[in-house]
Amino acid sequence: MRPDESQDMLDAAIRNLLTATAEVNAAISKFPAELSRRAAPTALASSPRRFLVFCAFVRLMKNQQHFFTSTTSVIVVQVPRAWPTDDFDYVADLSFKSGDRSSLRFKSFCHPSRTKKGNWDFQPSAYLDAQKVVVFLPKGAELHAEFKICADTNVELEILDDRHLDSLARQMEVGPLSKEDKALLCKQDPRYIDAIFRKGRSARSALARLKELTSKTSSSRRVLPLTSYGAAGTWGLDLKRDLELWRAGALHWADVDKGVLLYGPPGTGKTSFAISLASECGAHLVEASLAKWQSHGHLGDLLKAMRLDFNEARESAPSILFLDEFDAFGDRRKFSGDNQQYCSEVVNALLEALDGAGGREGVVVVASTNLPERLDPALIRSGRLEKHIELLPPNAEERASILRFYLPELADFLAIRQAAGALVGKTGADLELLARKARQRARVANRSLMIEDLTEHISERIKLVGADLWRICIHEAAHALVAKVLEVGTVSRIEIFDHTSENERSHETHGATWIDEPVTPFKTERYFRADIAVGLAGMAAEELIFGYRSTTAGGSPRSDVAKATELASQMVTRFALGRRLSTFPEEIDQSEGALFSIIPDLRADIDLILDAEYKRSKEILESNQEALIKIAGALRDEKFLAGERLAQLLNHLSSDEISGFQQLFQGKPGLLVQPGTSP
């Protein structure tokens, strides 16, 4: 035989072999894959947890006929994030007959996350060479692009079905499970399942011990009632009612508040409010912050951590997603330098998450900040964080309520209310610290808690009397009088506090005046100037009556002078309502004191406005000095003026500088004028 003939015969044989192999593979592929439904005892012998996964997977795959009848198919199965991933690969291997597990027929794959460097540590081609592929993907995790392209179906694996739990309970002889038992089980770590379902042992008893264990863990976080949080608490109670209606199907999610921004000084209870809100609403709480997300690594890790927290909130709805230190995200208009792109991508990702392209039903976002002026406006617009509430230190009644909560043994003591009255300006965190100190004092003495344990830690009260008390009365009466004359709004309440503490700084609050400020479609120069005049009225009255001023109008970022300065600064830098028509670019943070050193004339422009309004305020007070004395006298005697009593005192004022604001606009609560922070 010639060499050429031998080579031809060999080539023909190879072609025939390849053709036969292709025909065999084609025949195999057309033969439907079968699910091994009788492997449940094997799964149960492995572990109760894997038995539940097996039951859920078989039920899911029964409805995926395309996967079994098609020549090739890729299915992505979304699985609970907290569930051990080994269970899924084990169950997939068990669920298909051994012949289907060959490299040509079937492969399963537990999809991992990217590495810390942002790369994938696997090659999809190693799995896509099989005809049938099942990809198990944790809910909310990123799917490799190649799997996105070729996936025929994307489904969710729902484990812990009632029927499967009942079946497991019967086979393990652990007794029946109630509806409450199953609900509790669904909220726990899946790793507890094997410990709960022990052959012949009561599952209900195990669940009771688990519930006791988790309650002890959570009891370390004391939950204040929402009524302790003022306006924020009122909003929270409204949300609680709305969530109850939403759960019952009586309210559409579109009609529920989507989020709230809490702002105010440190220690006022923004974090504890989120905990209380979740507790009273019976909602799952997810706590997050930019710092927490950044701790995961580079930008890709940060964005992944952000997505996972939002996904956890969606999976556990109804949920409260708490974003602490919200100002850390910054404002895109002010980003610059090397970090501009990085910071912008973070804010853009957060905006996308807040918009909830994948659905945000059942998730309420609560954000907190001490610096609301540093936020990107897009973050707090309607549809995102649409409600904005200022959290201030609690008033006397709220302080008493908080003390009773932390010290229930002393709730019936009248001294609790008296102690609360002595703690003006104290935050919820301050009151919790006092309660801990009181309990510590009782423990050291090895006895029950006494009211003295609390009062011992309250600084000695110094009664405001004589000229000091009269100065505070004059100061607050002046705010109310000038507000009435200039018709800035409606003065609704004046209050003084006739005591202080030896440790309090001189600028702490001794009184407050509440003014319902008008709602305006825009603000005029006269509007700004009238607000400034009201803010400076207290110190002007002190100079008028006593001949010199005190520290009551300054000393803190929320003081009368600080607020007046901020208003004048806005007039000059943002609205061209000063001496010059130029304004500063929007990217400049006008609240920064550095502007004064950058633009020397700026302070002079602001002082010009402040000086003019201080003089105007003093002139109004001189014209109405008799009325000023009368209002201050009533305030000294009664400590609190409101309603008809206050209206009578303000009705007989004379001035030709009426601005007419009340005739133009309707009022709304808005302005609080006081020497320091609110009570």
Tell me the number of helical segments per DSSP (H or I, 4 or more residues long): 28
Task: Provide the spatial order of strands within the biggest beta sheet.
Answer: 6-7-8-5-9
CATH topology-level name of the largest domain:
Methane Monooxygenase Hydroxylase, Chain G, domain 1
Largest sheet: 5 strands, parallel
Kindly state the percentage of residues in helix.
40-55%
Number of strands: 15
Computed Rg: 35 Å
* Beta-strand percent range: 5-15%
Mean pLDDT: 82
Blueprint (SSEs and pairs):
Elements: H1 3-30, H2 40-46, H3 48-62, H4 65-69, E1 73-79, H5 86-95, E2 106-110, H6 125-128, E3 132-138, H7 145-150, E4 153-156, H8 162-172, H9 179-186, H10 193-196, H11 203-218, H12 230-247, E5 259-263, H13 270-281, E6 284-289, H14 290-294, H15 299-315, E7 319-324, H16 340-355, E8 363-369, E9 387-390, H17 396-406, H18 414-421, H19 428-444, H20 451-455, E10 461-463, H21 466-485, E11 490-496, E12 499-501, E13 511-516, H22 525-546, H23 560-573, H24 594-598, H25 600-623, H26 625-638, E14 640-642, H27 643-650, H28 661-664, E15 671-673
Parallel strand pairs: 1-3, 1-4, 2-3, 5-8, 5-9, 6-7, 7-8
Antiparallel strand pairs: 10-12, 11-13, 11-14, 13-15
Helix pairs in contact: 2-3, 3-5, 3-8, 12-13, 15-16, 17-18, 17-19, 21-22, 21-26, 22-23, 22-25, 23-25
